[in-house]
Amino acid sequence: MNAVQITGVTKCFGDHVAVENLALAVPRGSIYGFIGPNGSGKTTTLRMIMNILQPDTGSIEVLGESLRGACSARVGYLPEERGLYRKMKVREVLRFYGELKAGRRVNREVDEWLERFGLLDRANEKVETLSKGMSQKAQFIATVVASPELVILDEPFSGLDPVNANLITKAVLDLRKAGATVILSTHDMGTAERMCDFIFMIHRGRKVLDGTLEDIQARYGQDTVRTQIEPAGAGLEELPGVTQITDFGHLRELRLQPDADPQRVLEALMQRGQVRHFAVIRPSLHDIFVRIAGDGESIPEGGTE
Amino acid sequence: MMRRLLLVAKRDYLATVRTKGFIVGLVIAPIFMGGSGIAFALLRGHVDTRDRHIAVLDRSGVVATELERAAKQRNDEVVFDQDKHEKVQPAYVIEAIPPVADDPDAQRLELSDRVRAGDLHGFVDVGPEVLHPGTNAATSYLRYYARNAAFDDLRNWLNNTVNNHLRRSRLTGAGLDEAQADQVFRWISLDPMHLVSQEAGTGEVKQGGRQSEAEAILPPLVLLMLMFLMLMMGAAPLLNSVMEEKTQRIAEVLLGSVRPFELMLGKLLGGLAVSLTGAGVYLGLGLFALMQAGLMGFVPVEMLPWFVVYLFAAVLMNGAWQAALGSVCSDVRDAQSMTLPGMLPAMIPMFVIMPVLKEPLSGFATVMSLLPPFTPLLMMLRQASGAGIPAWQPYVGLAGVILTTLASVWLAGRIFRVGILSQGKLPGPRQILRWMIRG
Asked: What is the average pLDDT value for chain B, to the nearest integer?
């Protein structure tokens, strides 16, 4: 059974169509990545799943129940911007959020999570005294302390150093292991690639990608060459069959035409310098995102359901 | 639902009453509200005792001498406190100036310049025919020139002294002797009295006793001020509180757990609890103090249940609109522009206190107090005034208030649930109306 089942959902704000005829199925126990440029309709979709907004048309089922607020106690939500009472003490605010969600006291769970995230010694301090990373961890605890079956995380890693990001990553994976379904909205394509079982991309209110990372990359084929050539400043203009070059400094990625021959590209590179690295690869999620959102490239056949 | 509602209410209540600001506010607010009265009481003893030099241009020839005599008598009686051996009142020093007939304007200008220079406090110009004024106002005038002539205490003294002397002179001129003339002017004050009542058991007639102005004005005014203060404490802060929860994205998190209407209602109940706490503290302390002072007879005990009922309705009604207005704001500037419209239902009654208190049975007072947004404050003011308003009016007013409160909470809830998630430009009245109708 799916944790979230969205069917033919459209949501407008005045004349602006925020989400158009969206269909999506989020399987239980999965981590589902939501990606898309700013203003693409991600947050509106998340708010509709949260039952904060109602769709104009279509239906949304969450955890087997059709909407109208019936299941909000089973869903945890971490918004992109922090939403904690700054003047309240950390422990108090977490107990408040947890009790509001669970409908029972969650004192023990709050202390367990505080200890896990190294915040126990700050439990009696006001939220406003916490650093950005600590507030982010507190916000995460507020989201999960009531043990929701569906966890919606909007940019959970923003403002976190690698150590704390690992803590949250581990916590998210543990939640999944415990049976929860996680929807992870992020602009960090690396995170989406590493953590998500499925990726969903929305652009201008419409679904443009939906599937596993492998499926999505397979639709684009092996049309990318990653290379390192010396000298580093060697010109790569007018290589045969290359439509675009992305310079990462140390490495460069070349996008090939569908009928281009990588062998000829390699030959051309060897004429311009000493090739240290040459690999024909699938495009990264970052690359696919930029192609759709930045270059307006059309989606290959089978790119959407 | 009830558990979540109470949780939101409890959090809001504790977040307010635990702050130092609330406790300090409890102490300071009544001082501010009764500030002018307290300042008046404190400063009443502080009189400017510098001598007042008054020039008199007596064109009648009958006034200047009397003013000099009366001033001397007054100065002897009230200027020095013999027990304290100190000057407690200014002395009035009269300077008779012979009027110049050919250029009176130049003389008035000269005297005015002396006032401006601080040499004189003021001067009086007495017309030539004041003793026997005919129809010609040009010759029978009495004019007082000073920097602030209209509000000057001296004007009253001059007015009374000159007119008493003129009337006495007219009567003695008509043949009455001085003692008879004084009898004619004997003033007997009209005392305000309570109504006479009859003891239910003994049938004994109970005299009303003398009524004081303070006794008549203070109970309704104190109750009114207390309710206004409670609105400021419990309802008004909801505008900023909701705006902050919206802009800090707290509302977005809360709405994952509670419905918008539950959130608003919870906040309203929190505000109501704050108001009841404040009212409880003030009423408790006030009644205790009056009891200790043996003044419980002045307390309109029968008004207390009405006060509590009106307070409930007023906080919920005003608070609902404040919350709705707060929900449409996206920043502090929006909230500032919404403050005045939000406060109007509480402020308009404050502007009409005096006309309503003076004539509680007038058509104006009746209509204003039956308009539901103003009923809690103005009907209570009329009831507490003791004017004996028709018995049906408070009940009709209360019915209107209850219906309006329910409608306000419902309509505000419809605005709130759209407004709390809206971003960007402040919506106009038409758009807010659309949210109210469509939800």
From this structure: 88
